């Protein structure tokens, strides 16, 4: 393995923060184990294609960072700020994203199978073709989100949506209810009413009323 690389990989762009740079460089010299980036400022870094399996990004700043095509299996990103981040085609299987910020982030074609998203601010997020199978989506703000062609599998789907939430081509099944915000008012949709609303948005998601 060459100096300063990990399994032949190194960041395309390091963050500006000196502490974060030092932590990354130390980790790159190791042969195994996840990155401890708890609370670090990694904003603007290009970490695309990196293997961050079982890493810790708890409360870290990843605003406008790139993690496109990155592997984050079983990582912890609770409370992390990923606003504007690029996670295109990233593997987020079993990742903890509770209380994270994903405002205007890009997760197109990302794999979030069995991921945990509780209390996530995902306003304006792009999740086109994203896999949400078995994920827990509780109190997620999906207002103005692009969920076109995304795939669900009996997900808990207690989320906030609005008339700008895009669902065309979305498929699978979810457990509601959702909160629909419209012109300053909000109402809860569940069962047939939720399924009809999804259908009017071009989605083919079945709303179920019980477990598997």
UniProtKB/TrEMBL annotation:
Species: Streptomyces tuirus
Cited Pfam families: Pentapeptide
Protein known as: Pentapeptide repeat-containing protein
Entries under Gene3D superfamilies matching the protein: E3 ubiquitin-protein ligase SopA
InterPro entries to which the protein is assigned, alphabetical: 5peptide_repeat, Pentapeptide-BTB/POZ_domain
SUPFAM superfamilies, sorted: Pentapeptide repeat-like
Organism ancestry: Bacteria, Bacillati, Actinomycetota, Actinomycetes, Kitasatosporales
Highest rank taxon of the organism: Bacteria
């Amino acid at each position: 393995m060459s100096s300063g690389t990990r399994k032949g990989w190194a960041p395309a762009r390091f963050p500006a923060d000196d502490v974060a740079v030092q932590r990354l460089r130390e980790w790159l010299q190791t042969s195994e184990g996840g990155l401890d980036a708890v609370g670090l400022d990694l904003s603007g870094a290009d970490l695309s294609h990196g293997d961050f399996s079982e890493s810790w990004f708890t409360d870290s700043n990843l605003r406008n960072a790139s993690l496109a095509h990155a592997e984050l299996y079983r990582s912890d990103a609770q409370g992390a700020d990923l606003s504007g981040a690029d996670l295109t085609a990233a593997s987020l299987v079993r990742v903890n994203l509770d209380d994270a910020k994903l405002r205007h982030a890009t997760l197109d074609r990302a794999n979030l199978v069995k991921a945990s998203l509780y209390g996530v601010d995902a306003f304006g997020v792009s999740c086109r073709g994203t896999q949400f199978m078995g994920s827990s989506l509780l109190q997620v703000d999906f207002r103005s989100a692009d969920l076109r062609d995304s795939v669900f599998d009996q997900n808990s789907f207690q989320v906030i949506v609005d008339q700008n939430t895009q669902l065309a081509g979305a498929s699978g099944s979810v457990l509601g209810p959702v909160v629909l915000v419209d012109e300053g008012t909000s109402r809860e949709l569940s069962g047939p009413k939720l399924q009809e609303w999804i259908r009017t948005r071009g989605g083919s998601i079945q709303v179920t009323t019980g477990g598997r």
